[in-house]
Design a protein that fits this description.
Structural class: alpha/beta
Helix content: 25-40%
Number of strands: 7
CATH architecture: 3-Layer(aba) Sandwich
Oligomer: single chain
Largest sheet: 7 strands, parallel
Length: 290
């Protein structure tokens, strides 16, 4: 196994490529690594039940695979990427766990509530909620960002998190966990991702505040802050030149792979992190979060 982090995965320049939003895994070159051939479970989430938003691809798929191999059943929430979602479900089922796929728009509070209900119906419990789905788009000028674009970014990235946590917490037992996906953009915002970066700062703050609010219930709330990660979001939302050089600005010199994020989510979901709440784990390829 390659151990040198600078050469373990492909380095820029990446092949030229562009996709329409929201982007699809099969069209990416090179294909992301979600841990399909590498992640080994050890029963750390045995018989737990999890919801993962944005579970169809990217970080969400890697987390779903890892959770299943650790012993959890998984509800895979996604927008409309049916083929990607079914592929994630196949990997969960191959690990011997139950997979439920639920399509829909998490901007809608009723859909979020119904997703929590569905998890309870299918699994009889909800131990882990991973708020991972996100919308982003690149703009070179604030004048180019419409009110509608700003609204959809906040509703997808922040409002949905509020809706899901509000519906889930009354159904969660002591020992349950919530894991939110923030970003290095929370403290080092990319100017061309103004709306997205702003939501990621809000997510970090929401995580810290909610952690204090529900600590007395025995529920922990933490976040992971990825740096540049090679997912379908990249070729579908960034200019070709940025895609080509994606990840070059890290000390490690490359973009991260979804598989390199999954262990952080497993740690926060498991009882090995029982004294961690309100934390933000940085997985940034060496770029500091100040």
């Amino acid at each position: 196994m390659e151990r040198d982090p600078t050469t373990k995965y492909p380095r820029p320049p990446m092949p030229e490529q562009q996709q329409e939003m929201p982007g699809y895994t099969d069209k990416m070159n090179p294909k992301p690594d979600h841990g399909e051939d590498s992640y080994k479970g050890s029963g750390r989430l045995k018989d737990c039940a999890a919801i993962i938003t944005g579970g169809d691809s990217g970080i969400g798929r890697a987390v779903a695979i890892a959770f299943a191999r650790e012993g959890a059943d998984v509800l895979i929430s996604y927008y409309n990427e049916d083929k990607d979602a079914e592929e994630t479900a196949r990997w969960v089922e191959e690990a011997g766990r139950k997979a439920i796929v639920v399509a829909g728009d998490i901007q809608d509070e009723a859909h979020c509530r119904s997703m929590i209900d569905r998890a309870m119906e299918e699994f009889g419990r909800l131990d882990i909620l991973v708020n991972n789905a996100a919308h982003q788009a690149s703009f070179e000028s604030i004048e180019d960002i419409s009110a509608e674009e700003w609204d959809v970014t906040f509703r997808t990235n922040v409002y949905s998190m509020f809706y899901l946590c509000k519906a889930a917490i009354p159904r969660m037992r002591p020992g349950s966990t919530i894991i939110n996906t923030s970003s290095i953009n929370a403290t080092d915002p990319s100017p061309s991702l103004l709306a997205y970066a702003t939501t990621k700062g809000a997510i970090a703050n929401f995580t810290a505040g909610l952690a204090g609010l529900v600590a007395g219930k025995g529920i922990r709330v933490n976040a992971v802050a990825p740096g540049p990660i090679w997912t379908p979001l990249i070729p579908s939302t960034m200019p070709m030149e940025k895609v080509k050089n994606f990840g070059q600005n890290t000390p490690i010199g490359r973009a991260g792979q979804p598989a390199e994020l999954a262990p952080a989510y497993v740690l926060l979901a498991s009882q090995e992190s029982s004294y961690m709440t309100g934390a933000l784990i940085e997985v940034t390829g060496g770029r500091p979060m100040i």
